[in-house]
Each structure stands twice: as C-alpha cells, then as structure tokens.
Structure to design on (574 residues):
C-alpha cells in the first residue's frame, strides 16, 4: 500500500525526516511512535500528498504523490492532528460538502452520512454547530468525515491526543472495528497504550530516523526485560542512589522521579534493594511495556 | 460493515473535474451565507446609502453639472460610481477578511487539500465566489436604479457582466494580498486602501478635478477603471475605450489568480 525508500524532508536547514524506509501492507494497523519533533507528522503529511518529499522515493498505492496527488487522495482517509472541521457549517453539512469533494453523487453522500453519523454516535447532533461539540465529539466527526470516501488507507495523526479516557476508548473501539473490516490504518501516537492496543506493526522514530521496527510484543522482547522494578526515593536522590543498585539489574534508567531496574525477576530486585539497607518511599513491580522500549531507544520519556 | 463496504454501491471516490470543484466551493459558500444572510446584505447597503445621500440628496442642490461636455444630472453621474463600488465591496469582503479566516483559523483549505481538490481549484472557486457576490450586489443595485428612474439605456444591463470583471479583479488581488497578512491588524491597510479609492476614483466628481500627476495615479486604480466602465454603460455611451477597462480588469484578475495559486502552494503544501 505504501512504500518509502530513503525518504527525506527538510525545512531550510532543519532535517525533519532523515531517510526512512517504510513498507505498509494492506489490512495492517501500522504505528509511528516517537517524541514530539521526531518527524512523525512530517512523514504523514508526505504520505497524504500535502508535503512534497525533499528526497528519496515514496509510493502510495504504487503511485507518486508528486504526480498523482488527487488520485491517491481519492482513496485515502485523513484524520489530522488538529481538527480541521468547517466551523461555518453544521455537522451534517460538514460531512456533505466534504463527501462531494470526492466526486460522489448527492444521494450517495447522503446515504453514507446517515451510516457514518450512526457509526460515530452523532446522529442526534446532525444539525448542531461544530463549535458546540465536545472535544471527543469533534474527533469522532473528523473520523466520520475521513471515512466518507470509504478509504483503503485511513491516516490518523495522534487520534486521541487531548481526549478524556472515556472518549479515547470510544475512538479505540471504532478504530478497532475499522481494522477488522479490513481498512489499513496508519497512525502516529505518543501514547504507548494506544500503540499496544491498536497496532500490528510499529516503527519508533527519533530525530527523523527509524530506530526500531517490529510488533509491539516483539519490540518489548527485543529491547526490554520481562519485568521492571520501579523505585521511588526522596526528591533529588535518584541520581546518587543509582550507582548503589545498578548491579542488581540488567539495565537501569534514571528518571527525575524514580529509578527503573530492568530484570526478569522484579521481586528479587526489590528484595535485594531492601537487603542493602536502602528504603525507597515506594516500590512497584510491573511487566515491561512499550514505554520501556521507548525509553531505552530514545533515552527519553515520551511526552516531553 | 456496510459503511466500509465499497461493494454496496457503484459510486467510487475520484478526482474532480475543474468545473465541478469550482461549483462545490460556490455551494459551500452559499450554505454558509444561508445562515448568515444579514452579513451578506449589510455589505450591499453602504453604496446604496451613498447613492441616496450624496447622489440624490446632494445632487438636488447641484446645478449645471456637466460630464464629457454634456450637461447631466449629478445623480446619474454618481450612480454608476456606486455600482462599481458595490462590485468592489461584494468581492473584497470575502477576498480579505473571510479568506483570511478560512486560511488561518478555519483551516478550511487544509481540509480541502486532504481531498482530491487542488490549490488551483481553491483559487478559482473562491474567485468565482467573489465574482458571484459582486454580480448579485450589482444586479440588485441595478433594480434599485430602475425603480428610482436612474437607468436611461439598455446598455446598463451590461453592468452585471462588468461587475463580474470588477469582482474577479478585486477578488484575485485582494486574496493575493491577504496571503501575505499575518494578523487582523494588517487589515487596517485594506480599510486604508479601500476608503480613499471609494471616495476619489471619480465616484463623486470627475477625474478632471485633479492635477496631472494625481490624475494619472487615480486612473490606474482598478476601481477607477470599473467606475468609468459602468458610467459609459449606464449613460449609454460605450466606446472602444471601454475595452481598455475590460482588458485592464481581466489582466488584474488573471495575475491575481496566478499569485493566489502559487501562494497557496507555498503556504499549505509545505
């Protein structure tokens, strides 16, 4: 569906994407993870044909975005990071006008709107002004809008950023249904739980490069241990105490508010810490997650 | 699931033909104004009020007014000026303030560019909308003039197509300049340009009142060209000279369109 070879994007002196290779197969939910500024959105914009690549090769549906932008876009659904809903039109007309931009006949668009409003649970808001919708509703409307042309690939740039937990679960449920219906999903996120829930395949981007590629589980197995012991000490003590415990684990990460000790047996690590007369304010043993992979690969927490 | 099953219907999303895209942009704007018709009407009223207060009110105390050597009623002199001003208002209101809002705040064109629409479709569609609004304003203005017995020639009907020309010239240039604006404060410049153009482009008194160099400046403003063209038509004295105005306005529109398209490319396709 999508293939990129050595794809680059620069803005003046700044290189946002520094040569990435990506290949997305049909029906896959493909995730781009990375901190802010990693080049995720720039990559998405190139795939959506609204940003000409600065170098390398990009093909979407086997076509070149520079030449066949409109043809590609006819088969893409785009859910941008910021809602770009038309605030001068009501909910129904937003979908109607947008659907018509895809060259679909009036009756066809009207039929699809009824189905889509139902799908995103906005049927009773059809006549509402866009500005009167909550954040979650706007997002759902944006998703409904992106589906009006029955896209083969749905591109979602941070689909749940800024939403409350309930609204996020509704979106996840809808995206999951789309995936089951065979739509190829391409999403960026900096929420690890989102990536774990939705993605079959992931790449981790950092500073314009791809630093890891695999399935969520595969990445965890490859880049982290089975368990993590979290130790919380007093404010400002973490840096100094790290040296006293680092031999207890395969690897250690020092965060401003806690130490993360990577080991296949977390409980044993905690016991060992206590036996050295250290008394953390709080301890926690948990399974490794994508967050840990991310920390390991980029040396940073995600939302920074 | 039905909504995702393309096999349910034979309709398939596709790129639009140029004419279709422009028609859809017009339709989108009509939908918006259907709910904001008051805004649409107020833009129309200003030149109408000037026609009544200056053209007819002040005109009642003006005697012995001549134009091109012929004695005419002062109100017949002012009315075509107000037609051209009406056409200017019709297009510039959308081409500046509303265009800026759509571009920067409503993110309307980012939305459109996620669909098969192209920047040239957006530029053409919006300029056509500016023209349409000018045309509607002037058609209504003409009806008021007929009712006030201010129309003396069938040539006057041609002010409607003339309004489309004026609309495209002001629309295209207004949009082109708006792409360079960064904040609402910049629009003071629009007001600053519109007001003197409205007052001094041979709208209320003939251009012969100016000294040579100033006259030359006035004569190259697009509104002056529009005023002269409308006046020749409503007075029923079109000439080959009218074609100069036509070509001038067409050129303004065409150059503006090219600039708008290129500016949209560089602003939105980054």
């Amino acid at each position: 569906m999508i293939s990129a070879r050595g794809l680059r994007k620069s803005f003046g002196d700044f290189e946002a994407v520094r040569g990435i290779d990506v290949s997305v197969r049909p029906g896959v939910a493909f995730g781009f993870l990375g901190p802010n500024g990693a080049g995720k959105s720039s990559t998405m914009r190139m795939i959506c044909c609204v940003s000409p690549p600065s170098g390398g090769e990009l093909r979407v549906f086997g076509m070149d975005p520079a030449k066949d932008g409109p043809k590609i876009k006819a088969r893409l659904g785009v859910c941008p990071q910021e809602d770009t809903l038309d605030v001068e039109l009501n909910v129904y007309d937003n979908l109607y006008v947008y659907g018509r931009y895809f060259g679909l006949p009036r009756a066809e668009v009207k039929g699809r709107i009824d189905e889509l409003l139902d799908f995103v649970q906005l049927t009773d808001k059809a006549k509402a002004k866009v500005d009167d919708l909550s954040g979650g509703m706007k997002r759902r409307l944006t998703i409904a809008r992106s589906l009006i042309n029955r896209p083969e690939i749905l591109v979602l740039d941070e689909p749940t950023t800024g939403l409350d937990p309930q609204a996020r679960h509704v979106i996840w449920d809808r995206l999951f249904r789309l995936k089951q219906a065979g739509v190829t999903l391409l999403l960026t996120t900096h929420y690890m739980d989102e990536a774990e829930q939705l993605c079959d395949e992931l790449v981790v981007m950092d500073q314009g490069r791809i630093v890891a590629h695999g399935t969520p589980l595969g990445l965890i197995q490859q880049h982290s241990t089975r368990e993590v012991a979290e130790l919380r000490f007093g404010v400002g003590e973490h840096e100094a105490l790290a040296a006293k415990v680092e031999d207890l684990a395969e690897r250690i990460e020092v965060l401003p508010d806690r130490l993360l000790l990577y080991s296949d047996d977390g409980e044993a690590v905690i016991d060992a810490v206590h036996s050295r007369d250290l008394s953390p304010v709080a301890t926690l043993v948990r399974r490794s997650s994508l967050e840990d992979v991310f920390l390991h690969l980029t040396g940073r927490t995600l939302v920074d | 699931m039905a909504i995702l099953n393309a096999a349910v219907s034979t309709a398939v999303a596709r790129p639009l033909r140029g004419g279709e895209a422009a028609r859809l942009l017009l339709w989108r704007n009509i939908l918006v104004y259907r709910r904001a018709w008051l805004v649409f009407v107020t833009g129309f009223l200003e030149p109408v009020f000037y026609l009544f207060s200056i053209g007819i009110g002040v005109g009642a105390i003006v005697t012995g007014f001549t134009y091109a050597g012929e004695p005419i009623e002062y109100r017949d002199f002012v009315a075509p000026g107000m037609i051209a001003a009406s056409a200017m208002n019709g297009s510039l209101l959308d081409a500046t303030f509303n265009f800026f809002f759509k571009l920067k705040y409503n993110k309307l064109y980012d939305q459109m560019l996620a669909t098969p629409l192209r920047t040239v479709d957006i530029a053409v569609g919006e300029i056509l909308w500016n023209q349409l609004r000018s045309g509607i304003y002037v058609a209504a203005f003409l009806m008021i003039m007929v009712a006030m017995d201010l129309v003396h020639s069938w040539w006057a009907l041609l002010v409607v197509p003339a309004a489309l020309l004026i609309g495209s010239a002001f629309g295209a240039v207004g949009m082109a300049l708006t792409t360079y604006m960064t904040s609402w404060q910049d629009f003071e410049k629009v007001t600053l340009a519109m007001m003197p153009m409205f007052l001094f482009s041979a709208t209320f008194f003939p251009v012969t009142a100016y000294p040579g160099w100033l006259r030359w400046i006035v004569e190259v403003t697009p509104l002056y060209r529009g005023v002269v063209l409308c006046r020749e038509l409503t007075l029923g004295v079109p000439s080959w000279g009218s074609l100069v105005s036509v070509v001038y306005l067409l050129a303004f529109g065409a150059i503006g369109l090219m600039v708008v398209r290129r500016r949209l490319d560089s602003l939105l396709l980054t």
